[in-house]
Amino acid sequence: MSDLPNCPACESTYTYEDGLMYVCPECAHEWSKDAAADADDEGLSIRDANGNPLQDGDTVTVIKDLKVKGSSLVVKVGTRVKNIRLVGGDHDIDCKIDGIGPMKLKSEFVKKA
User: Fold this and answer.
1) Which domains does the chain possess?
2) DSSP string of 58-87, one letter each residue
3) What Gene3D superfamilies does the entry give (predicted)?
């Protein structure tokens, strides 16, 4: 088992060292070893639309109508989402919305309640 970190962009396990950098051969993402060490120490640093830090288990409020892809459903402004889980990637919040089900949200469309 390799001690190298997974790629922060695509979560690939096939990363390798190149001097002072880590490189992902699948998505060509490069990041410094220092940045990887800082990310391990700090964990995820995700902020809401107002700049407030979010944590696992927080309750957030949706600040914009969001269309649900592949469906005619809409998450309305003011919808409260309880017990969020922070994940890496483009859509950085995993949650379950009443009446819709499990979803991934972007932190830029929510505010801490």
Assistant:
1) 1-39 (2.20.25.10), 59-112 (2.30.30.40)
2) --EEE-S-EEPTTSS-EE-TT-EE-S-EE-
3) 2.20.25.10, SH3 Domains
